[in-house]
Amino acid sequence: MTLRLLLKFLEERFAVSGRKVLILDYDGTLAPFTENPSDALPYEGIRELLLKIRQAGGEVFFVTGREPEEIVALIGLSPPFETWGCHGAVRLLPNGKRHSPNLPESVFFGLNKAEALLKQIGLGRVERKTTSVAFHWRNCCPKEVGRVRKRAIETLKPIASLGFSLLDFDGGIELLAEGFDKGTAIREILRDASEKDFAVFLGDDLTDEKGFVEVNRRGGAGVLVTSHHRKTDARFFLVPPFEVRVFLETWLSGLEKGGIQ
After folding, report:
1. What are 128-163's pLDDT values in tens digits?
2. DSSP-derived secondary structure for 208-241
3. Beta strands 90-92 and 98-99: pairing type?
4. What is the pLDDT of residue 171?
């Protein structure tokens, strides 16, 4: 459903809800994809809107596939927002305290093996994270993508059976230690939420689908940020970057005025 319907939904929920919790993915949602991930700065006006939302008393959380420190650096606000990185496996608090899972040696062995084997493919970009290894082919020649994807899957499948899952995302595939996903992270963020509290989660990728399901289950809204419609569990969709800015402006206005009109 469109921006207009989403804003109508916000108007109805802001009037009767307690806490308003805004949960955000980053890449493809608040920032464009770039060849160099460190160049993926927020769309114009996003950083300023997030700062104003915090100043108005809004609760903001990030849930991302990246290491959380990367998001803190790209957003560039101090203190940073609480960020759940590596698909919710790593929690970075505003005070800088980092909570990482205790992983068994078998997981480290699998990740090390996957990283080494993927590098042997020679195409694409290999990214090692705390709980996963991602293989990116976004910058590959379009004619090569099918072949590169097939080789990556063939390489990772034997390792995936050892306590990992394979996760498709826009422009790559990721070998992820089992037990971590964005839905689980959002469940933890909202652990103490009451039935009156209201949460919205903005995301753009297949990796965000479990997050959409979780906020929808609680009466909130999963919002798919995309220029191309696809099958999704999100209740609404926004076209970036303009509609994302309108949404954040409306959220801010609702906080400042005690409701949306």
Report:
1. 999 999 999 877 777 788 888 899 999 999 999 899
2. GHHHHHHHHHTT-EEEEE-SS----S-SEEE-TT
3. antiparallel
4. 87
CB-based contacts of 74: which residues, under 8 Å, 6+ apart? 26, 31, 38, 40, 41, 42
Per-residue confidence (pLDDT) for residue 15, from 0 to 100: 87
Q: Per DSSP, which regions of 124-171 are E strands?
A: 125-128, 132-136, 164-169
**CA angle centred on 171, ends 162 and 84, rounded to 5°:** 65
Which residue ranges make up each domain of the chain? 3-101+180-257, 105-177
What CATH number does domain 105-177 carry, 3.40.50.720, 3.30.70.1020, 1.10.510.10, 3.30.1330.60? 3.30.70.1020
Residue range 3-101+180-257, CATH number: 3.40.50.1000
Q: Which residue did the predictor score with more confidence, 144 or 237? A: 237
Q: Which amino acid is at 162?
A: L
> Is residue 62 a contact partner of residue 81, using CB atoms and an 8 Å limit?
yes
